[in-house]
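Hey, can you fold this?
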Amino acid sequence: MEAKKENTKETTFTLQDESGAGFIQVADDVVSSIAALAVLEVDGVSKLTGNINNDIVAKLGKRNLAKAVRISFDEGKVVVGVILEAKFGYNLIQISKEVQEKVKSSLMTMTGLECKEVNVKISGIDVDGKN
């Protein structure tokens, strides 16, 4: 499947099917939400930047997750950027690798979009153990 980004009021990714059956458009907020949920599933991640954690997701809904993840498009592939806070006592390199794999896997499974890269920045350590 070939993907291209369109600049409309709401940015979308268009997935072209080589069979000629048509196309599928996915809003970038949907892609961001999928990536954010994948990040929060990784053991050792306390929260995404902007203080978005599992409790807030439950209260505010998944739509707000899109604001915590940066999505761009390069050479037909998605580039994802996340900033997170890790839980104390976890290996930061291992968490980062798991986040990268989980995001890539989730986006490919749910949208068919390939990730060129997943950039992970760790902004802090949660020493309290509270989200």
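Oh, and this one too while you're at it.
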Amino acid sequence: MIKKLLPTTNPYSDSLTCDAAVFTATGNNAIVDWVWLELRDQQDASVVIAGQSALLQRDGDIATIDGVSDVEFSESANNYYVLVTHRNHLGVLSANTIALSTTVTSLDFTNDTSLIQGGANAVVDMGSGSYAMLAGDQDGNGQVQNTDINSVITILGGSGYSDADMDMNGQIQNTDINSLMNPNVGKGEQF
């Protein structure tokens, strides 16, 4: 059942919007949420060169606002660190700079932890050789802490598009805390 919870305007600073029809895709290419992408300076990974919103597909692919096309940045071809963040997960940053050019550059952080700063400490093992971002950062400060859990506890039973909904099923439940937040308490972004 499609719950139609995703907003057509992203939750990030660029206020990018998409057509609601993008959310009707099903299967592996179904859109499950918005993410934020950044290109960071090759000499200093703390310096943000560019950032933009994008859409996350069920299979982990990231697409532009049409839900299927590759994300493009207008910055010149160069080497950049690449950051992926999500509204209630810990972000991941590439371990090394990535050579981005005018042709398609494909990045896959899902099956090789050596490509991510912090390696296996920065992600959760989903089994079958795939990894995902760590859930539980309700306040977006780069750490999963008891304060995140305490904030979620105060709105248990709520529903809708919320940073407190860790499994993104539209409900704020004990399972968000017990299954996704508690195992990650004390973990933080590795960059």
